[in-house]
Specification:
By secondary structure, the chain is α/β, with parallel strands linked by helices. The protein contains 3 helices and 5 strands, in the order αβββαβαβ. The protein has a 5-stranded mixed β-sheet, with helices on one face.
Length: about 130
């Protein structure tokens, strides 16, 4: 007795997509929860208007950075770590609230940021970056 295999062409296999959608949503939630939203700290630079003229004739803290990375505080060679001490000495004898950083065109951004970080320790100083 031979049995005939009965095939129905009208029956088609459907794939249930619900478990796959569940996995996608679980992965999405996992990545949203594990992503850390960190606010990057930066330096706010206020560029002065070209039309405004300042009549501040007082002493100014001038910091030059040359192309080799040497830092000069009021035309005297100084290490970056010693800048806060130099600023404190300068502020003890002079009444000023402004500091100007003059980097060379080929100076690395890392050196400029290191110098700005040292000046930023003094909240009352207005930092300007010259060309």
């Amino acid at each position: 007795m031979a049995r005939k295999r009965v095939t129905h062409e009208s029956e088609q296999g459907d794939v249930d997509m619900t478990p796959m959608l569940d996995i996608v949503f679980i992965l999405l939630i996992f990545f949203i929860v594990t992503t850390s939203f960190v606010k990057e700290e930066g330096i706010l630079v206020n560029r002065p208007d070209a039309n405004k003229t300042t009549s501040n004739n007082g002493p100014v803290i001038m910091i030059n950075i040359d192309e080799t990375g040497n830092v000069r505080f009021n035309n005297k060679l100084v290490d970056i770590e010693r800048i806060p001490a130099r600023i404190e000495n300068f502020l003890a004898t002079h009444d000023t609230n402004s500091a100007v950083v003059l980097p060379h065109f080929n100076t690395s951004y890392d050196k400029v940021v290191q110098v700005l970080d040292q000046i930023k320790l003094f909240d009352h100083l207005t930092i300007s970056i010259a060309k």
